[in-house]
Design goal:
Length: about 625
Amino acid sequence: MPSRAASHPGPHAESVEKTHSWWRVMCLTGVDYFSTLGYQPAIAAVAAGLLSPLATIVLVLLTLFGALPVYRRVARESFRGEGSISMLERLLPWWGGKLFVLVLLGFAATDFMITITLSAADATAHAVENPFAPAWFEGNEVLITLVFVGLLAAVFLRGFKEAISIAVVLVAVFLLLNAVVIVVSFFHIGADFTVVDDWWGALTAQHSNPVLMVGIALLVFPKLALGLSGFETGVAVMPQIRGGARDTEANPEGRIRGAQRLLTTAALIMSAFLITSSIVTTFLIPQEEFQAGGEANGRALAYLAHAYLGDGFGTLYDVSTICILWFAGASAMAGLLNLVPRYLPRYGMAPQWARAVRPLVLVFTVIAFAITIAFQADVDAQGGAYATGVLVLITSASVAVTLSALHKQQRKRTVGFAVIALVFVYTTIVNVVERPDGVRIAALFILGILVVSLVSRVQRSFQLRATSVELDEVAEQFVTADSDQHGSVHVIAHEPDEGSEDEYRRKLHDERRDSGIPARAPVVFLEVHPGDSSNFEEDLVVRGVIRHGYRVLQVNSGNVPNTTAAVLLAIRDLTGVVPGIYFEWTEGNPLSNMFRFLITGTGEVAPVTREVLRRAETDRARRPDVHVS
């Protein structure tokens, strides 16, 4: 049977046509990560007030000594672009693991979808606030945001070949302009050092105890969590990174090193900009301007660009910010196009068209339109949901690397990652308590994924689930010998008990007697040994063995009837002879057997096998025969 392994075109296809240097790929994830400079300093000022620089330093420390080590390990252990969710999937098998992954996918969908809508809404805010903006922009924020989302969708509908080149230009220009604004702002601070004295005087008047200052900064830094965005997309874009000459599929060392350089460089650049931008905006912008309706609300560095470099440069800065905020959604869309085709169809929890880019882009665009309209393109209203998605994914990653280190008996790393995980758990809980709207939105995504997944899995229950079927050399010899010498292949479905010689002898005797297998016709037993029944799609390897003188085909799978049907079709395609299979009727209540089939992959094996074959092969003459006695 030809392979039907999950694959899709686009930025995260399993086979990428062209890869790029790690620094160019960094710009792809950087359009999300670095674009937060457009609004992060203002968020820090609102959350921490005069303590903004200190709270930002706490955030930077958590970035460099928390999130960065976690994701460097994720890059090493999940190098196919599946992120930390893949690590948890391997560490938590069976249905419990699948449900946990689906919940995480709900939070990931929240993170990525809100990234698209929030970034587009913030791009609109920068456009509306520009002094040269047309008057009709005011009051049409929702329409403008929808246009930005639609343009992003158009990029993906057309293709993604030029996305990295666009990202490189946008990131380079945006960071350069931010550097100019920050350097000029420091010159103004140096020229009038009284702003520092004023800040310090106001700060000590509010908080006379230095220890209390640190404590407050530790308490408010969860509100700055948006500054941690970009790490999950950083590992999601790993398939785009050019590897080394000695890279192998099992150990792409060059690609892993490139991804770790990407993560480290991005974190260092962002940390420097976060600290410096927090200092200049706190020293130079009056606190009331950060509040709702203020000129620096959501656009602190843009405020400084207009104030100190004129409206011409300020407009250039606004245009750059608008472009990178708009394109920040590209990184998020790429993450969605990476996650959905890799997980849901393989779980049987999405239709096959979910592997294709264009239908998914249209679905995600419609959802983004709905979110934009529901939130009226309000940046502040979407901030809680965005922070929740970011923090849950980082927390899950820290838990995943902790479990990985524990599994590998790395005690010091286990303790270190456990401490990081506890910090992120605390941060997530604080964020959820203060901004529960993020959990509500995530709950809608999770509920939608679970409901659609359940319906899809039931509807697809009679599909062939094998992505590929491979018979080993011995198994091939068994079936080809029968087809060549006798022109037929008789297969007896067998569920082994104690595996004794007497068990095989009695099974063969009963089937010859009850099913009418000719006395001289050779037979081969087929045994499906239990696997993870929560898996929907599998690569099957059929092994040929001799048990007590009887020929046996053995295969591991979590689903008996669908696997049986796939093996029969593989035998037909290999030998050119349509095989026949012989079953015994399953005992028990038909209704309970139906639920057993859906959950454990067993139940009414014979009739389900026949139905799977009927749907897979419409030509009756080429369909394997199913006999039940």
